[in-house]
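Every protein is a chain of amino acids, and every chain bends into a shape of its own. The fold becomes a row of whole numbers, each drawn from a learned catalogue of backbone shapes. The protein below has been through that process, and both of its lines are reproduced in full.
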Amino acid sequence: MIPLKYNARNLVVRWKTTLMTASGFTLVVAALVVMLAFVAGVQEVCTTSGEPENVIVLAKGTNDEIMSQMDLRLASDLENVRGVARNDKSQPMASREMFLVVHHQTEPGGPFKFVQLRGVTPLAFDVHTQFRIIDGIPLRANQSELVIGKAVQRELKLNVGDQIDLGRKTWKIAGVFEAAGTAFESEVWADLTELASLFRRDGVYNSVVLRADNAEDAADLSARLAESRSISCNPRTEPDYYSKQAEQMNMISSAAWVIAWFMGIGAIFGVMNTMFAAIGQRRKDIAVLRIIGFKAHEILISFLLEAILISIIGGGLGIALGMGVNGYTRNATVGGAREVAFALRVTESTVIFAAGFSMAMGVAGGLLPALSVVRVQPLEALR
């Protein structure tokens, strides 16, 4: 075999051409890594949202809280279903909730932003155990107070004690909460009674969240409600519900690969052009290699490895650039109306896929030029 240092030396000698060709791989791989980091970040938030002991119940025929409407009778029936856990006061751990998306103007004359409002009762804090106040005080009923997720605090630049106009009312920020990095951190929570009165939705709920003693009981509770003839509803365990919200990310992931392949075609032609030019300039080198005993397939492999080396250089730089967005916080809309804050995540699998994709482009771009080496006649090349 021809030593690899032969190829490395040629790349160094033609360093300008090498870097220009490698830059094509860099741009393609960096774009792919960023797009996959976006998908991974959203999926991470959605798949970790919800607790396996909780069952979220929506109105029959709806798959999203924003579209669901449940009346007082249905909510009462759900609270008394067998399998719902009880707290230390013997109350059923069932949280009646209202979910609204309202607009808010950050400053006079400024842009409007959507705010996700969740109306809850005190039982919500028994059901959603991931909820934890990190600044200020817990939510108090009938005090025109709000508690905001830390993602909302970061996005709207609000602090405890600030006032905010939502609907036709001015509210005071009483506290800031975290919820283990889940979608709830992108929400604002208010007293259910106050919120229902403000938006004239008394006795109407978007969902009821039931808590079971453990994950197995929650799955069993969800199955029994789905099969029930007396209670018409659409139950799901919380992890399943939020995972479904992220399904649209699969489409985005597929689109990312399609875009990457189209961009990669340019990189493939770039390395192909570079390698054809290199072979044209080194015909005498190829002839000498053949004369001193190297076989045609060994020279073919050598030039193919040279193309792969270019792809490794460009791919490595692209991965390094893409990893620069790791941890960068953005917002995304999932499930039609829900907006979640997430951090872009460059995972190990993303790095492996990107590296493999870069090398595949190198092989695709270098194979045809390498095959042309076989047709070089030593004596004719040395004339």
Notes: The CA atoms of residues 268 and 361 lie 6 Å apart. The first strand starts at residue 54 and ends at 59.
